Amino acid sequence: MTLVEINFDGLVGPSHNYAGLSLGNLAATKNAGAISYPRAAALQGLEKMRSNMARGLVQGFLLPLPRPNGTLLGQLAVDETTDPAIRAAAWSASSMWTANAATVSPAPDTADGRCHLTAANLVTMLHRSQEWPDTARQLRIAFGDEQYFAVHDAVPPAFGDEGAANHMRFCTSHDAPGVEVFVYGSPGGKFPARQHEQASRAVARLHGLDPARTVFIKQNPAAIEAGAFHNDVVAVANGRVLFTHAEAFADQQGAYDAIRAAFPELEVVEVPSEAVSLAEAISTYLFNAQLLTLSSGEMALVVPEECRESQAVWNWCEGMLASNGPIRQVIPVDVRQSMANGGGPACLRLRVVADPATVDPRFLLNEAKAELMAEVIAKHWPEQIAPSQIGDPALADCIIAARHALLAALALPELS
Ligand code: SUG
Q1: Among the options 115, 171, 317, 347, which is catalytic?
Q2: Which of 57, 80, 262, 343 has the greatest count of CB atoms below 10 A from its CB?
Q3: Strand bridging mode 179-184 / 214-218
C-alpha cells in the first residue's frame, strides 16, 4: 500500500451562475446578478488540476451533480410566483467546491484502519443542502472498495456540517498517523456559523478517531463576521505546517497549544494582522490555498491570482519565501470564475489520503482524460448564463445534455 494525498477537484458544472445565494460569503453576495461563464469556469478548474498533475501529484476529480434539481423544485412547488433565489438554488453548481463534499479521515487515523468519508449535510444554505445524497452516491462509487474505504451518510440536519473546509490534519508524512483538528463556529453573529461543534464531534466518532489525537477548536466569531464562512478561508494545514491568519481562532494561542499538545512537531506560519488584515485575507483568499508537499519534499502554496494583485499579500508572500520557512514556493492560479462565488483553490478540492490503486480509476485524471474533458466542456458547456435565464427550459435541456455528454465520455453511466 502506498498512501499518498490525492486531490479530488470538483469539476465546475454547466449551470455555474451568480445568484448570490450564500449569506456571509462576501464574494458571492457582491457578484449576485453578474453574468457567469460556465465554460471558462470549468476550463480554469481543469487547468488548475493539470498544473498540479504536471508537478507530479496524483489528481482526481468529482463530477457535477444533476441540475436543475427537479426533486428540489417539486418539493418546494416552485412556480412563477416563487422567489427567484429559491428557483436558482435548484440550478446551483455549488458541488464544484468539493472541500465541502465530505470530511475525510485517512486509514492511519481510524480504529478500523480504513479511510472514512462522511458526506457533509450543508444544511445552512438551501442550495447546498440538496448536495449530499448525490455526493454520497458518487463517493460510494469512487471509494467503493469497502476493504479500504467507509463512506457515511451525512449527520442529522440539526447540526450543520460543511465537511473538510473546517477540518485540518497534521502528520509527519501523509501515510503516518495524523492529528485531526475540527474547527467549529458559534451561532449568534450577523452571519451564520455553518459548522456546528456537535456535527464535528459526531464525524470524529463515526470515523473512529483516537480522542488523544483529535482536537476541537472554535473559530473566531470576528472572522465569520468578516466573511470567513469556512475556516479554510483563514487557515490551511499540511504535514507539520499550519498556515494561518493571526485572527483565525477564538483563542489563537490556545488553539496552537491544543494542537501542539497532540502534535508536538507543529510548525506555525502565522500572518499578522498588521501585515495582512482579516479583510484583505478574505478578499484575496490567501489562506484558501492548496498547501502541497511536492515530490522534492518542499511545500508549495497554490494561491488565487488575486493574491498577486494585493500589495500587502504579495509583499507578505515574498517576505515569507525570503525567510526560508517551511513553505518554499507560491504558485498563483486563475480560478476567477469560482472566486467570484467565494471559492478559491482550496474550496475546489477534497483531499483523500489513499493508495490510488484502491480508487475507482474513472475518477483519476491523466493528460489524455484531461484533454477529453476539455473537449466535452468546450463543446457542451454554456458560454455564459445571465441570472434572467435561470428557469429557462431550453437552457435546462442544454445543461442536462452537457452533463450527460461528460458522463458518457468518462464511462460513468451510474451517475446519470
Ligand atoms: O458555500 N459559494 C460557496 C463557496 C464555498 C467555498 N468553499 C470553501 N470555503 N471550502 C458557499 O458559500 C455561492 C453560490 C451562489 O451564490 O450561487 C456559493 O455557494
Answers
A1: 347
A2: 343
A3: parallel
Residue 232 CB–ligand 1 contact under 6 Å: yes
Q: pLDDT category, 239, cuts 50, 70, 90?
A: very high
- Provide the 3-class DSSP secondary structure of residue 404: helix
- Told to judge if 347 belongs to the known catalytic residues of this protein, a careful annotator would answer yes
Residues paired with 105 in a beta bridge? 116
Q: In a mutational test of the pocket of ligand 1, which residue from 30, 168, 224, 341 has the highest number of ligand atoms less than 8 Å from its CB?
A: 341
Q: Helices marked H in 350-409 — which ranges?
A: 367-380, 393-409
Number of domains in the chain: 1
Q: Rounded to two decimals, what is the model's pTM? A: 0.98
- DSSP structural state of residue 135: H
Average pLDDT, the chain: 98
pLDDT digits (tens, 9 = 90+) for 155-173: 999 999 999 999 999 999 9
In the predicted model, is pLDDT for residue 412 greater than 80? yes
195 CB near ligand 1 (under 6 Å)? no
H or E element in which residue 18 lies? none
Radius of gyration of the chain (CA): 20
Ligand 1 atom with the shortest distance to the CA of 341: 13
Q: What is the DSSP string of 215-251?
A: EEEEBPHHHHHTT--SGGGTEEEETTEEEEETTSBSS
Percent above pLDDT 70 for the chain: 100
Q: Decide if 162 is catalytic.
A: yes
| C-beta pairs of 69-75 under 8 Å, 24+ apart in sequence | 69/130, 71/130, 72/130
Whole-angstrom distance, CA of residue 119 vs CA of residue 133: 8
What is the 113 CA–ligand 1 centroid distance (Å)? 32
Q: Domain of 206: which CATH number? A: 3.75.10.20
Indicate which atom in ligand 1 lies nearest the CA of residue 24: 12
Over residues 352-361, mean pLDDT = 98
Supply the range of the domain harboring residue 249: 4-415
pLDDT for position 50: 98
> What is the model's pLDDT at position 1?
76
Burial class (CB in 10 A: 0-12, 13-18, 19+), 216: middle
Whether the per-residue pLDDT at 26 is higher than 80: the answer is yes
**Looking at residues 350-362, what average pLDDT do you find?**
98
Find, among 269, 235, 249, the residue nearest to 346 by Cα: 235
| Closest ligand 1 atom, residue 88 Cα | 17
Decide if 118 contacts 180 (C-beta within 8 A).
Answer: no
